[in-house]
Amino acid sequence: MTEPKAPGFSTLAIHAGAAPDPATGARATPIYQTTSFVFDDVDHAASLFGLQAFGNIYSRLGNPTCAVLEERVAALEGGTAALGVASGHAAEFLVMHTLLQPGDEFIASKKLYGGSINQFNHSYKNFDWRVKWADPDDLSTFEAAVSEKTKAIFIESIANPGGVIVDIQAIADIAHRAGVPLIVDNTMATPYLIRPFEHGADIVVHSATKFLGGHGNSVAGVIVDGGRFDWIKSGRYPMLSKPRPEYNGMVLGETFGNFGFAIACRVLGLRDLGPALSPFNAFMILTGIETLPLRMQRHCDNALKVAQHLQRHPKVAWVSYPGLEGDKYNGLAKRYSPKGAGAVFTFGLKGGYDAGVALVSNLKMFSHLANIGDTRSLVIHPASTTHRQLTAEQQTQAGAGPEVVRLSIGLEDVEDIIADLDEALAAS
Amino acid sequence: MARRRGLVYHSRMTHDAYPDDLIRGILHNVKTIALVGYSANSARPSWIVTKYLLERGYTVVPVNPGLAGQQQLGQTVYGSLKDIPFPIDMVEIFRNSEAAGPITDEALALDPLPKVIWMQLSVRNDEAAARAEAKGVTVIMNRCPKIEYGRLSGEIGWQGINSRIISSKRATMAAKGFQKRTLGPPGVNPFGTRR
């Protein structure tokens, strides 16, 4: 028997989950563009519906193309299983739906993507899921927010709109002392830079739309199960630890062991709430992931050079990029994200709000849009767009004050990226 | 089970991780499995595993003193291991870790001995395992044979579960049906991944 060895990250990015198609021999993962799958017989159908056999029923519940993406991301994150969904927002929603009952609380970092802040503050009120905000720069605020109703803690590994690295292990320790799982949105880092499960996280969510897909062409989300949280022992998560009436009394956390959380998100959340991922989008994201290690390194290398350049620019007040020596988060970046500090960061213009608006309109290669993690370099003025719905105080807390410009550095030649910025700054 | 000698897992004997080829070899070679702790409740894992293994062509012998003599899933239920009137290749223990001790001893009193004692996911009894291994019986603990079969056949990937298998070889489809896969022999995975 040969001694086992583990495949490397780049190998997993290309191969995990994707064997040749057994029906046709197709080597690339086929797009299984079908709603439904034929049963062998009535007994097989009953086994599938009863979660007693592995297999495909209907593409809202699972699809073979989406399944390859799920296994790929689970492997890259070092998780036990994953679930592909329609968007990153859907991923967050299904995770919370699986963990929270009406009246329950969860603690979230103040430094988050503005869309997540909106979802937590407003949409969740309809479910009576109560967010309590904490500051990742002051860990005691997480401890102070814990109550008997707390069911989860939610952070981003590298926080949007950029520049913040969160001490994942320290917050995981707080979560585990409170007996709750830590959820990490790993969108901005991707598992190439940070694998949150190695730092104590229990659940990872992604907007795969961003760097995983990487080409700005498809919206998708992924939930990854870390497999270490003991739902049965905890007993505080009835979706996992109590018999489920819709599955004949099955206890999902018991039946599915260390991938029970991913299964619960699928068979209770995705099945009944319905934000399914299209097989075509899954294929596009999968194709992107094959080059994730190459792209992500280039994104980071370009971003560092651009950040260093802006730091020296006379019209720039400050640059918030953790890859810069002397940056407030440089120590955490070296510890958690040594290969690079990501591609998204913010900087402040001495000219304030008006200068930000002018810069965005003067750039000729950067695209002014609300996405990040594209091959193309992207720019946005958060205060007038993504973070517009927040109060001025929330904008500042989230790192999106009036003078702030956010860049998502692409894969173009870095000289061209810098030249576009220089010309636009000169004209602003 | 001619390959058996090669399947005994000597390396460190910690039972924290097993090479894929050890598990694959066991599931490829055993034919008759006694499942101790069978439940007639179709929502219970022991029922689900019994049904799954029967569908994959194994002879599964349910063992439960409360159901002895009944027909379940087309099989005769026995009250205890010693009542089974034919040799068994593998004893699968669907009881708690403490109960796994005396059940292991019952299995070790069988003649001929089973080749494998397998304790279900969350069941682990290292003292019992040591007694079995002293008699040359291979022991697997804290694993589910259904999950392992699904994982090693690639079937579990339908559910987005990380199989930890990397292979450019075509999966083996079952003779009947569209989605069912079967296990090949050991040696197809270039990374003998531990789990």
From TrEMBL, chain A:
InterPro entries in UniProt: Cys/Met-Metab_PyrdxlP-dep_enz, Cys_met_metab_PP, OAc-hSer/O-AcSer_sulfhydrylase, PyrdxlP-dep_Trfase, PyrdxlP-dep_Trfase_major, PyrdxlP-dep_Trfase_small
Record flagged with keyword Transferase: yes
The keyword Cell inner membrane is annotated on this UniProt entry: no
Protein's name according to its UniProt entry: O-acetylhomoserine aminocarboxypropyltransferase
Gene Ontology CC annotations of this record: cytoplasm
GO biological process: cysteine biosynthetic process from serine; L-homocysteine biosynthetic process; transsulfuration
Xref: CDD domains: CGS_like
Modified residues (N6-(pyridoxal phosphate)lysine): 210
Organism for this UniProt entry: Alsobacter soli
Any one GO molecular function term: O-acetylhomoserine aminocarboxypropyltransferase activity
Principal EC category: transferase
Alphabetical list of Pfam families matching this protein: Cys_Met_Meta_PP
Gene3D superfamilies named among the record's database cross-references: Aspartate Aminotransferase, domain 1, Type I PLP-dependent aspartate aminotransferase-like (Major domain)
Membership in a protein family: Belongs to the trans-sulfuration enzymes family.
Sorted UniProt keywords: Pyridoxal phosphate, Transferase
Cofactor: pyridoxal 5'-phosphate
EC number in record: 2.5.1.49
UniProtKB/TrEMBL annotation, chain B:
UniProt lineage: Bacteria, Pseudomonadati, Pseudomonadota, Alphaproteobacteria, Hyphomicrobiales
SMART domains tied to this protein: CoA_binding
Domain called CoA-binding: residue spans: 27-123
PANTHER family: COA-BINDING DOMAIN-CONTAINING PROTEIN (PTHR33303:SF2), CYTOPLASMIC PROTEIN-RELATED (PTHR33303)
Annotated protein name in UniProt: CoA-binding protein
Gene3D superfamilies (alphabetical): NAD(P)-binding Rossmann-like Domain
InterPro entries per record: CoA-bd, NAD(P)-bd_dom_sf
Organism, as annotated: Alsobacter soli
